[in-house]
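Archive entry: two folds, one per protein. Generate the first.
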Amino acid sequence: MSLVADSGLRGKLKEACGIFGVYAPGENLFQVAKYALLALQHRGQESAGIAISDGRQIHLKKGMGLVSEVFNHYRGALKEIKPVAATGHVRHSTSGGTSPENAQPLLVRSRQGCLAVAHNGNLINAAELRKKLEKEGSIFQTTTDSELITHLVARYGYKELETSLKVVLPYIHGAYAFIFMTENKLFGVRDPYGIRPLSLGLWNGHYVLASETCAFDTIGAKTIRDIEPGEMVVIDENGLRSMQILPFKRNALCIFEFIYFARPDSNINGMNVHLVRKELGRQLAREHPADCDIVTGVPDSSLAAASGFAEELGLSYETGMVKNRYIGRTFIQPTQKIRDIGVQLKLNPVQKVVEGKRIVVVDDSIVRGTTSKKLVEMFFRAGAREVHLRISSSPVISPCYYGINTPTYEELIGYKRNAEDICRDIGATSLGYLSKEGMFKAVGMTENELCLACFTGNYPI
């Protein structure tokens, strides 16, 4: 979502955004959009925004902070207008992009009318396009790559956005899920590889779009299907139209949606995230069993994998660590020093559970290794005799350029280092990673249906 790479990251991968859209004339779309964004809050906690069309113009409210902070005491125009459609966004940016003007949806007005844009992903040719457009006279108001498409749409000048998108989208390369809204239409588009998720649902007889199906559950909508790679859906007073706007390349869904990013109650490609994570844990136990007394997981994304690990080996699963639920994901913190303190504020071992025990701690990934090292230290301080760390994914060896913030190669603890070296660095009794083949089995998809760039260094784009 930014043209600048993040250099100060915590020990976890970071998602970029969550997006939502609904076309439902006459309904209370402000509340619907707000509740949907609350369900997607885990995907971005830096800023939030809602744009609503009344059929003649688009009204926008956005701000820094959580959805509740931006909208709980809101008394403005969005609550008063008679709505036709709405789109919303929750955001986490890379460094250099943390500012109110970069909050989304972006709203632009041109001779073609109003256009609101909500984007999840990252355009890998953004710097090149921006430089070209600036040379030709474009003036940018933000540092986000999302603004590029508004300039391209305005430049081509077609009256119908549908026509403009058919011309413009082939110019942009990368991972993206877009929701566009004009005064009287809603558009959903997914990149030709399907790297970032986008789903279609039905609410009160009206169509809705969201990054994850948990947003549909929250507002009482029924999930219909995932938007296909390269597909565009157009929603207006005539209903829903679908077209393959970009040539299908191949399925390359980011596997970290299953491992870490998505909420466990969401479904992706028809598979429940919680059940996939549980199977990741079972597969991990088959590959890397441990002689121990109890199994525990790192809240929240690793709990399902930990329970699957324990069940597979017939071990006791215990709550060995408690999460302070009033502290957001630590990747939101702006500096590494504050992030380090955040780990200790957020997670605390249950001493009476782990004291004197040989424990297995299941986590979803190791990126830098800083968080894992702190977790191991905390368990030993709480009195654990042995701390066996098990990871329900493979070693992260490469940065991601598709909308997930990862450190450089040199900062990745898995880059050019084996499990024994990493185990020694973080201070664990033993360390076991799930193999790539194990991940495929658990997810139920093949290597050619997933983006595995962070594990293999092979980039689909």
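Generate the second and append.
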Amino acid sequence: MKSTSRTGGLVYSTDAGRMCPDCRQPVAECICRQARPRPAGDGTARVSRESKGRGGKTVTVVRGLPLDDAALVPLGKLLRTGCGSGGTVKDGVIEVQGDHADQVLELLRKQGLAAKRAGG
């Protein structure tokens, strides 16, 4: 069993909810997550299909977009509605539920973004 002092101590507070183990702030106000920059890519979006760790469910994943988090959210919404599917945007990655790689590539290119298929 890990000691709580090594893992950051408090992980939940009845006042603030979940706590970040690194900066010890509420997760909504976490400063260390905002400070971590994403690795700079080459400006080309990589569209792939994944199912590992998702209970066998297929997800179309878009990585490497040269956009900040504020611009990824509306683009994620556009991709989800264009595919008629659900999904999310987290940590600089757009996830669209289902196998929609071809549709996502087409939608990204219509937006003027460089995109290519990655994986199998």
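Annotation attached to the second fold: Confidence is low (pLDDT under 50) at residues 1-5. The longest helix spans residues 69-83.
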